[in-house]
Amino acid sequence: MAHYQNILVALEPEKEDQAALRRAVYLVRRNGGKIKAFLPIFDFSYEVTSLLSQDERMAMRQSAIDQRVAWIRHLSHHYLESGVNIEIKVVWHKRYHEAVIEEVASFNHDLLLKAAHQQDRLEAVIFTPIDWHLLRKCPCPVWMVKDQPWPEHGKALVSVNLSSDEDFHDELNKKLVKESLELAAFTDSTEVHLVSAYPSTSINIAIELPEFDPTVYNNAIRGQFLIAMKSLRQQFSIPEELTHVEKGMPEDVIPAVAEEIEAGIVVLGTVGRTGLSAAFIGNTAERVIGHIKCDLLVIKPDDTSEDDDHDDED
């Protein structure tokens, strides 16, 4: 978390209360760094006014940008007056998510925050098409913010993949835990929990192999996961009672544990992709994301390659 010093906040175009900006200010006040409050805007009517010259259209466009800059400055004036380092930038761009991703890449932002939508405080977070584009394609970690204060003495739930011997899974697990612990150190006594889901026995196996004992199999799988979890938690001195190894599908287990411990944020890892495969962040992550009811932080590994076809973290 300490290296998140160059934060981009993707603002909501019509909201007076900007939850993502509020969360970014919370982080910067505790961790240092700077914020760019960023808003892409576009009005098609400005592009088709044939009676106006190109210069006149450009002037109208600039006037719209200036109005939005003034609006953002008004929204941010309490933060600015208190000394928070906030740069305000409004750009004219047809596609909101493309503008945000281009800004991240061009200015080396190391964290993107954007508000997620929700029906009410008890409902799961709703992700718009723009949110999905950002989660899938943004090159830096993406923090989707639910519209509620960061809980004092809150909890972060880190989803780790303990089912694979692949080196990249092990390294990504360590990165997720390390960055979550760094986040906890700068927030109000945030408690870091780890969770992993292990599969149950397929009914077909039990039917086709009468001598197969599903109880023995399930116990063996759980034992393997518990050993792997112990190895991971001990590397970071995380107490056993803050780890959760549960039977079931990740999209069921992770939201259920998050709700049970009243997590303020779920941290997921996804294998980064470029090129054509950038349209996917991984089946597991996409299923989990649709069911959580709190903030979400999505982190990619340090090294990604265009032909990487590995799935995401559980």
Explain this structure.
With 314 residues, the chain is an alpha/beta fold. It contains nine helices and twelve strands. The strands form two sheets. The chain has a ten-stranded mixed beta sheet with strand order 3-2-1-4-7-12-11-8-9-10, with helices on both faces. A two-stranded antiparallel ribbon has the order 5-6. Strand 8, helix 5 and strand 9 form a beta-alpha-beta unit. Helix 3 runs parallel beside helix 4 and helix 8 packs parallel to helix 9. The protein is elongated, with a radius of gyration of 22 Å. It starts with 5 loop residues before the first strand and ends in a 15-residue tail after the last strand. 37% of the residues are buried. The C terminus is likely disordered.
Distance between the termini: 22 Å
What low-confidence regions span 5 or more consecutive residues with pLDDT below 50? Answer: 273-280, 304-314
Record field, number of beta strands:
12
Secondary-structure element order, N to C? EHEHEHEEEHEEHEHHEHEHE
Mean pLDDT level: 84
Helix content percent band: 40-55%
Task: Give the strand content.
Answer: 15-25%
